[in-house]
Write a structure and sequence with these properties.
The complex is a heterotrimer of chains A (331), B (117) and C (151). By secondary structure, chain A is α/β, with parallel strands linked by helices. Chain A has 9 helices and 16 strands. The longest helix of chain B has 29 residues. The chains are: A alpha/beta (331), B mainly alpha (117), C mainly alpha (151).
Chain lengths: 331, 117, 151
Amino acid sequence: MQTIEFKSKPKIIGSYSIVGPKEGKGPFGSFFDYVMKSDGFGEKTYEMAERKMFEQAVTGAIQNAGLHSGDIDLLLAGDLLNQIISSSFTARAYEFPYLGVFSACSTMAESLATGAILINAGHFHNVACATGSHFSTAERQFRFPLELGNQRVPTSQWTATAAGACVLSLEGEGPVVSMATFGKVIDYGITDVNNMGAAMAPSAADTIYTHLNETGRKPSDYDLILTGDLGKLGAEILIDLLEGRGVKLGPNYSDCGHCYYSRKQDTMCGASGCGVSASVLNSYIIKKLKAKKFKRILFVPTGALMSTTATQQGESIPGISHAIVLEAGGD
Amino acid sequence: MEYLWVFLIGGLVCMLGEILIITTKITSARILVTFVLIGVILQAFNLFQPISEFAKAGINVPIIGFGASLAKGAMNAVESSGLLGAFVGGLEATAGGIAAAVIFAFIFSLISRSKTK
Amino acid sequence: MKNEKINEAYNSYVEARIPKTKAWPSLFNSFWVGGLICLIGQGINDLIIYIFPSMSQQSAWAWTLIILIFLASLLTGLGVYDKIGKFAGGGSIVPITGFSNSIASPAIEYKHEGIIYGTCVKMFSIAGPVIVTGIVASIVVGIIYFIIGLF
């Protein structure tokens, strides 16, 4: 079994999302807690800006939960930079323990699932979960200098400058994390770093298929099935792959990356990065769950486990996706 | 008239690069390497000079011209100073371009930073 | 073995799904921007000779390249060259200005890692292969030329 159910019903009692100016102009713009005026965020380097953004997300989530930093038992966080420095350096600002997690852009689900397990087991009361990404830091680590005059290919995606954090707790009010399905690492041999959607879609398909199979549910049992950052092409491929395995995704399926930017923003296949699913979950999704507009959703962020070294050595890009079931709760 | 040929040939050479990008998805470093090698080969077979007389900046401004200068420098230096020329000639002929690119890049790295995209 | 078959089938399936963009606009843009950059080069060259009639063609050409390289570095520093590149693609990569941009952009990008390990080390991260292959090829050509000359 890859799926676990949380009997003690851990709840998301506070959340916070922060995004860059470009992201603020997208369709989700009005839902975010904070839109930065410039993605340099007043810092000397973009790495420092990413860390500051991360810190604001964690602090904001704790405040929105009505807690103080002393109430938090653990921070579970990860990001895209080497040695997950944004998370780790954020953690040094706080007095609570920290566990670094990494599953590329699926990190939000991994941290939520791990946090829910720890709470369910009775070890902790309040666990903070966070992740984020920054366009300018990801671009220089994975691709090219910002000022290099090259063209973006049609399958490429735009790494979002965004971070999201939430506080999971045993008590309090909020959407319930009721189940989690951990995903397998799946690699169908895609080597094109500009086609992450195609690299991640097989893992999303496998996780969703496994989840539905193990729980005996149908796609229509969810008000929304939301993948992370497959983008336009990846989302189309996922629909095809699942159809090939006898699962038909209906109009309740959507992808954060695909609808993260408006069409005018010229981002080719959409958005990518940990921050995409994290900021959508911790703004739009949580607000809609609280308002009972959604009763039950399946949240499946997708990650491409790539490294520049491995890519240059000709390795293909493995994908990973973890799924989380969120329920409005409160009946 | 002369300027028309410069524009047309220069444009065609650059378009050839764009065709390479679209069809093979190669990145800018490989494009530049490919065109430098084209220049070296053209010069090695003495084909560059006739094109250059006709196309002027149209073939010299593209990085093909840089490759041709490298090869031409090496060949000329071999004639004047023998085998040693093969080693010193190429860089000697292109030193100005490389040095300019290095110094200006260095200066601008001191005074500007990557902009928000 | 079985795995490889799946991968092959998947890759060709993905290839077929990739959105096809119209090539003509980008070909046209690369053509006229590339042509224009060459034209500017010719203009600078002719202007230099007009102002300094005694200058040799070779020196005038060297100055032309240096000016073009300067302009490209300046536009890179101002954050403009990448916008031209996004529009023109090959039109601004293939000219010597693209070479200049490929040296200036990493130099600026990695300045925060320090002058030595940032700017100086990373400066050639894109243009390095160009210089290396160019030098290697020219030496090979020179040696072959030397050997042919012996007979």
